[in-house]
Design a protein that fits this description.
Layout (H helix, E strand, L loop, with lengths): L1 H23 L6 H8 L3 H7 L3 H25 L4 H16 L4 H9 L1 H27 L8 H16 L2 H6 L3 H16 L4
Helix pairs in contact: 1-4, 1-6, 4-5, 4-7, 5-7, 5-10, 7-8, 8-10
Amino acid sequence: MPTTRLSARRADLIARLQALFLAEGFAAFNIGDLTDRLRCSRTTLYALAPSKEQLVLTVVRAYFRAAAEHIEARVAETGDPREKLAVYLEAVASELQPVSAEFFADLADFSPGNDVYQENTRYAAHRVQTLVTDGVKAGALRPVDAPFVGAAVAQVMGAIQRGELQAQTGLDAATAYRNLADLILNSLSRST
């Protein structure tokens, strides 16, 4: 039982840190700020990770891991190849809904966190490529070069994370992902 309580406490702290970081970023906080905001001790935070940088990395990894699980669970609910692509892209946008521009900016400036984001972007691009390939094979999508679509998606995802698209369009990350989904789905739809 004590292990279960510790695991629940750890999960709760990570979830609270995640909500804080996604809403406000993480660079401006020091450990003292975090203990004040979370109403916990330094010892409690240091039980999660030995430094602020490691704490941020723990939270970033947990966020992307949970987001990937939620996205894939939604994709698994449909069997239609075109719908799988649509669900995947919409689920990515939904998972990014709570992410602030401050979080993305801090992530871009924090090399270990940026590495996690880039790894997830590569995975997402490969996943889109696979879904496009499956959709083309099933005749649900028009024939296209799936690796190109995956590479293009990766480029746009990177521009969203770096804040370039928001600077150019004013769109927040989730809205930009939804527009990317519309662009891809409409461009891949078979003419009827």
